[in-house]
Amino acid sequence: MSMKEISDLLKSNDMKAHSYRKMGNAIFVDTNLGKVVVKKNNVNDSIFEYLKTRNFNYYPDMLRTENYIISKYEDDALIPDEQKIVDMVDLVSLLHSKTTHYKEVTSDEYKKIYEDLLNNYEYLYEYYSDLIAIIDDKIFMSPSEYLLARNISFIFKSIEQGRKYIDEWFKEVENLNKMRVVVVHNNLNLDHYIRNDKDYLISWDKSKIDLPIFDLYNLYNNHYMDFEFYELLREYQSVYPLKDYELELLFILITMPDKIEFNDNEYNKCIEVSNLIDKLYKSNSIIEEYKKAKEKYK
User: Fold this and answer.
1) 1 pLDDT above the threshold of 70
2) Whole-model pTM?
3) Are strands 17-23 and 26-31 parallel, antiparallel or unpaired?
4) Quick one: fold of 82-296?
5) Is residue 31 predicted with pLDDT exceeding 80?
6) Residue 252 CB neighbour total at 10 angstroms
7) What is the CATH number of domain 3-73?
8) Fewest Cβ atoms nearer than 10 Å: which of 58, 123, 239, 286?
């Protein structure tokens, strides 16, 4: 994306560029008509057409060409992150509510999800078994290796628990012939939500039609250290209640251990192992809280 390309593109839309600033994959441009953001057009146009039919217009005004998207730049209001994340969850639940539909499926589609998850868990079990065997053979462990060795039983317990959840989940869905799907933003983090005169979601490059839980899973992976996810899940469910088997699939995903690659400096490896353990503890805590709440209201 050259400056000349952007300049020509803006001129063709009656805009004159005054200054440019690159951030990540976006170019921020001050023009005679105000500030705009220019990005490569990786968005499926049918998603926006569908959102229009569903009266969901919580994204910045934009011009789309074959290769680029020009969006109006929206200032973000100064509100606490704790409030901002709740507002974003409310907006995502609205997105899912407005775009819900059911597609006909065969048992093979649920079976494929089941087999893919099971294979992932089997791979992680073999991976961590081999890794801990190598670490145990060492005379002196590095701090990151010692941290992993101290917590390896919890990692294996999470894997075993995940396998159990998968089998239970598949028994519930194997005879279903419909699947609830929505538009998922698929790139949720706090930087992609703007609060101004109204709410906006930005960065729709990865959006698609899929299961609603994938937005929650994505949000959890990006912010599990920052916020109480169980409370955010409750907030989401107050607008868009998930079915039991959808929640169970979400729990399967969040209890799946991340794969650690021991190819960084020791400081970063310690952080990576620590984050893995923290995430698994948080995931298990969320599931326990959910089970207690469910028992309470039986």
Assistant:
1) no
2) 0.86
3) antiparallel
4) Aminoglycoside 3'-phosphotransferase; Chain: A, domain 2 (3.90.1200)
5) no
6) 26
7) 3.30.200.20
8) 123
